[in-house]
Every structure is written in structure tokens, then in C-alpha cells.
Amino acid sequence: MKFRAERSEFADAITWALRSVGARATLPALSGVLLRLEGDELQLSSTDLELSGTLRLPVQVEQEGTALIPGRLLGDVVRTLPNAAVEAEVNGDVLQLTCGRASFALRLMPAEDFPALPQPAEDAAEATLKADVFATTVTQVGRAASTDEHRPALTGVHLASADGVLTAAATDSYRLAVRSVPWDAAVDAQALIPRRALDEGRRAAESLGADVHLLLEGSQATISLPDRRLTTRLLEGTFPEYQNLIPQTVERQLRVDRAALLETVKRVAVVGEANTSATPVTLQISADTVEVTAGSGEVGKAEEALPGQLDGEPLQIGFNPRYLADGLEVAGGEEVTLEFRDELKPAVLRPGAEPDEGGDFLYLLMPVRL
Question: Which of 202, 258, 269, 335 is the most buried (most CB within 10 A)?
Fold first, then answer.
């Protein structure tokens, strides 16, 4: 194996491949990055058996071949390389990397120990999403996924395809995020995908600005872009039947500037956090004003008022400030609409603008008893 590559492109490719290298690999080969030279491309592969990634990088190929390199060591070396072309050559069981005046000899691992990576089936449900639509969907919905590994089904994002619409949903039992986007796959399919895999796909989509091909199968999902592909195992367990949680009737509706409410919640929450992170922020909502308060006499109290337009009776309701801020951050747009029934029922946050071809989003939030 022998090739020459641009330093920045090679470093970016290694950094991306390391995202699916096993952090606590049970098999030594899983800690490596597999380099394979074929034609005029260098293919980089890595896996931790849950998430697998493959990237193709155009390089100047002098001799084809395959090599398995310890991933973390390779990443550390590449980050230190000077700004010059990288030359790589395998001699026996050593990879010789030369960049400018720097030279490294890295011991190889047995390439035959690297597992075969999963491939998508030919009949997998597939559709194409624009990069910004995919990235926005993952950002908006993924924020509500749980981080509690004892409830694995809630740590992922549930995708369901039906009637030309792809619906993504995530919940940690305290909030629920749902986004629906047009989906051109003429099949019905469901998948519970780890949030980590979708986040990696989002980063790639944002970086490349390229369309995303999403393939859903019975036991795995694949996110494919022009130069790379991610395949992830699906999560086991049953995702909640969340549709029944979304209120069908609304008794109060508040329209308010999104950025103003977000900044206000963050400011007043500082006093509440000085006491306990569980201290809620309280929204005292009247016809044309939203008064946001937090804290108590024990540590301190903060309050701030901002304009809003309420349709319905006045209301006082409390929320976990971080959960409310999360919803406001990802909703987008200049205005948001908050829908209420009463101070004990879930509230629904929606972008103020009418849904467009990019999709429809809602964020349901459980109130805190005051």
C-alpha cells in the first residue's frame, strides 16, 4: 500500500472515522481504522459493532492494499502533522507516514481480524432528504431523547414512514418532540434509531450540504451521503404510543417572540439554579403580558416581563427551565405558539409560522406542579 493525500482532507477523514471506533473495544481490531486502497480512492472503515462508518477519499494511489491502524494513535499523529502533503507506505507490518520533515512508523494490526461491515439490503425502504431538512429534524427531535441507559428505548429517535410522510419522535417521559417531513418512499416502515447515529449523520449533512439517503430495515438503518455511509443497529424495546399524549383541544393559546422568551427564561433561571436545578420557572400569563419568575426568598428571586398575546383565560404554569429552553432553542422562527389546557396538563410549543415543505414540528412539555 502506498498513497499520497492532502493533509487537511486526510485529517478530516481520520477524525470522522474515529467517531465509530470502539472506545472500550472488546476485540482489539475494533479499536482500529481499516484503510483500503482501490482504484483512485482510499476507503476508511471503522466500527464498534453498534455503529459502522465508511468514507471514501480521493488520493494519489501508487500501490493498492489494505492496512488496519490503531485508531486513537493514528488520530493523535494526524492532528500533529504540519501543513504539507501526507505520504503513506506500508512496509511489512509498519505504516510509514511522512509529512514535511515529520516521519512516523506505526505498527499495524492484523487486517483479517477486522469484521465485515453490514451492508444495506437491496429492498430496504429508502428516501432522500435535503441536508437542511434532515439536520433540522435531528436537531429538533433528538433534543428530547433520554440519556438514561436503563431505558434504552427512550434514548433513540423513533422514525415511522406512512402515506408519504416520515415522522420522527423522541421523548424522555418529561417532554416529547415530533417532526413530520415529506417522505418519497412508497412503503410503510418503522425504526428506533440511536440518537448518536443520527447526530453523526447530521454533522456530515451540515458539513457537506449534500442530500441524505436514509434506508430503514428490520434490524438496522443506514445514512448515506455522497462520500460516506453510516450503518447502525436499531434499538430494542417498544417506543411509547405518544400520539395519545398530544392534546386534541386547546383552551388557551399564547403567541410570543421566541428569542425574547428564551433569553428571559435563561436569565431568571439562574437564580433558581442557585438553589436547586429542579426549581421551575413560572409563567404568569395575562392578555398581553408574560411574567417569568424563578427562585424563592431563601436564595433570591428573579422576575422579568415581556409582551405576549393570549387567546383565552389567564394562566399560571411552571416548567423545568432547561426543558422549556431546549424547546424554544430548536423551534426556530421569530415567534412561537404555546398551547395550554390548564396548569396541570401538557403544554404544546409550535413554531409560529405555518408549516412549509420543510416539515411540521411540535414540542410537548409536562408542567411542574407549583
Answer: 269
Amino acid, single-letter form, for residue 148: D
Q: How far apart are CA 177 and CA 160, in angstroms?
A: 14
Segment 165-189, tens digit of pLDDT: 999 999 999 999 999 998 877 678 8
As a three-state string, the secondary structure of the chain is CEEEECHHHHHHHHHHHHCCCCCCCCCHHHHEEEEEEECCEEEEEEECCCEEEEEEEECEEEECEEEEEEHHHHHHHHHHCCCCCEEEEEECCEEEEEECCEEEEEECECHHHCCCCCCCCCCCEEEEECHHHHHHHHHHHHCCCCCCCCCHHHCEEEEEEECCEEEEEEECCCEEEEEEEECCCCCCEEEEEEHHHHHHHHHHHHHHCCCEEEEECCCEEEEEECCEEEEEECCCCCCCCHHHHCCCCCCEEEEEEHHHHHHHHHHHHHHHHCCCCCCCEEEEECCCEEEEEEEECCCEEEEEEEECEEECCCEEEEECHHHHHHHHHHHCCCEEEEEECCCCCCEEEEECCCCECCEEEEEEECCECC
- Average pLDDT over the chain reads 92
**166 vs 240: CA distance, rounded Å:** 17
* CB contact at 8 A, 195 and 237: no
Give per-residue pLDDT as tens, 107-141. 999 999 999 999 988 888 888 899 999 999 999 99
Residues 33-62: tens digit of each pLDDT: 999 999 899 999 999 999 999 999 999 999
What are the C-alpha distances in Å from 272 to residues 116, 209, 269?
52, 40, 5
Best CA proximity match to 66, nearest among 121, 112, 30, 97: 112
Q: pTM score, two decimals? A: 0.90
Tell me, what's the pLDDT at 257? 97
